[in-house]
Design brief:
The protein is of the alpha+beta class. It has two domains: 150 residues, Ribosomal Protein S5, domain 2; 111 residues, GHMP kinase, C-terminal domain (Alpha-Beta Plaits), CATH 3.30.70.890. It contains eight helices and ten strands. Strands 1, 2, 3, 4, 5 and 6 form a six-stranded mixed β-sheet that branches. Strands 8-9-7-10 form a four-stranded antiparallel β-sheet. The radius of gyration is 18 Å and the shape is globular. The two termini are 35 Å apart.
């Protein structure tokens, strides 16, 4: 049997490390996976993954967990396609994990709802030690699109939001990776005031204010100096900006007509720059919250 899965990258609105509540906004940068189960062959501990470089721990552990939940024996082969850069703050692990989980489940003959897929990915992230919170917000938003606010302690969606039409996300992605979140989680618990400000704004629907508070928090915790960059993109027409995830990626949300000006305000020669649309999924399956 065969199955396919697809998810998207995302940018941070609120980092979940300080309080366990996170928020994210999906961008149209896809991760895709296809899975095939040959029931005539005995199962193996590790699936065969193409291309070789895609056989990461998140792929292997997510596929194994999906097989344990939905499978009935047989050998799994996976093909994974993603150009989302790893460990830059753009939710690559959540996007790839969600695509793999969805593809594997469908190859087993199941079709779990989006929130069920996202919970599986979050549980794997925590169990593997790759994520301190499981990043349920990141896994869910890449499947359902637009924006979500979630409680990552209970893997529950608190609300969904749409920032509005006619907007684009402008990215600066430096070419250095961030550490894993379990290695830095203690740094984020030293600024509860900023964390609460970001969470309250997101729950009230003021995602732009949430991004501003979130960026100040993450910059302080991780040592980034993006205040001047945030001011520069606002002067060029952005309506919100923030470090994404643990960085070093920086994201600005702007009206699409102003995106070229915002893009030119980002640093050149020290990473990549690009403009992407906000991703809005046609699917509304699963417990997607209010």
């Amino acid at each position: 049997m065969r199955g396919v899965g697809e998810s998207r990258a995302a940018i941070s609105v609120v980092n979940a490390l300080p309080l366990g509540v996170g928020a994210a906004l999906a961008i149209d940068w896809p991760a895709r996976a296809s899975a095939e189960i040959d029931r005539a062959l005995p199962a193996r501990a590790r699936p065969a993954v193409r291309p070789k470089g895609s056989s990461t721990r998140i792929v292997r552990d997510t596929a194994a967990e999906a097989l344990a939940r939905y499978g009935a024996g047989g050998r799994l082969r996976l093909s994974v396609r993603s150009t989302i850069p790893a460990r830059r703050g753009l939710k690559s692990s959540s996007a790839v994990g969600a695509a793999v989980a969805q593809a594997t489940a469908r190859a087993c003959g199941a079709d779990p709802a989006t929130d069920e897929v996202a919970r599986l990915v979050a549980e794997v992230g925590r169990a593997s030690g790759l994520s301190a919170t499981g990043a349920f917000d990141d896994a869910l938003v890449g499947l359902v699109g637009a924006g979500v606010v979630t409680d990552n302690r209970s893997d529950r969606c608190l609300r969904r939001f749409d920032p509005g039409s006619g907007l684009a996300v402008v990215l600066w992605v430096p070419d250095r990776p961030h550490p894993l979140s379990p290695q830095v989680v203690d740094r984020f618990r030293r600024t509860p005031g900023l964390a609460r400000e970001a969470v309250d704004a997101a729950l009230d629907g003021d995602w732009a204010a949430a991004m501003a508070a979130n960026s100040a928090l993450v910059e302080r915790a991780m040592g980034y100096r993006y205040a001047a960059l945030r001011e520069a993109v606002l002067q060029q027409g952005a309506i919100a900006s923030s470090v994404s995830g643990l960085g070093p990626a920086f994201a600005a949300v702007a009206p699409a007509a102003r995106a070229p000006r915002v893009l030119r305000a980002l640093p050149a020669g020290r990473g990549s720059r690009r403009t992407l649309p906000i991703y809005r999924s046609a699917s509304r399956r699963g417990g997607d919250g209010g």
